Amino acid sequence: MLRTKIKPTIRQIASHFGISKNYFDEYFKQQTGTSSLDYRLAYRLELVETYLRYSSTRLGEIAHELEFSDKNHLSKLLKKHRGLTPNEYRK
């Protein structure tokens, strides 16, 4: 098992600082130039890339551990955002 949960949620982070999720999202985008959701997706995809390159963990398990809906959805996201399929990462 990978044990790389992406918790806490954006809402929990905002709550920790005593601000609303909407304010957090606005502030995050102002400071980074990207939305918190896009940043989180990019981070998760980087983790996927690392697992695909350096482990033999099955894509379904990676998808589950990193909170993607399923391996097919993850494959489509990788192709869309990174231009490679999971098999291409493993070559």
TrEMBL record:
SUPFAM superfamilies: Homeodomain-like (SSF46689)
PROSITE patterns per UniProt: HTH_ARAC_FAMILY_2
InterPro entries for this protein: Homeodomain-like_sf (IPR009057), HTH_AraC (IPR018060)
Keywords noted in UniProt: DNA-binding, Transcription, Transcription regulation
Domain HTH araC/xylS-type: 1-91
GO MF entries: DNA-binding transcription factor activity; sequence-specific DNA binding
Pfam families: HTH_18
Protein name: AraC family transcriptional regulator
Lineage, broadest ranks: Bacteria, Pseudomonadati, Bacteroidota, Sphingobacteriia, Sphingobacteriales
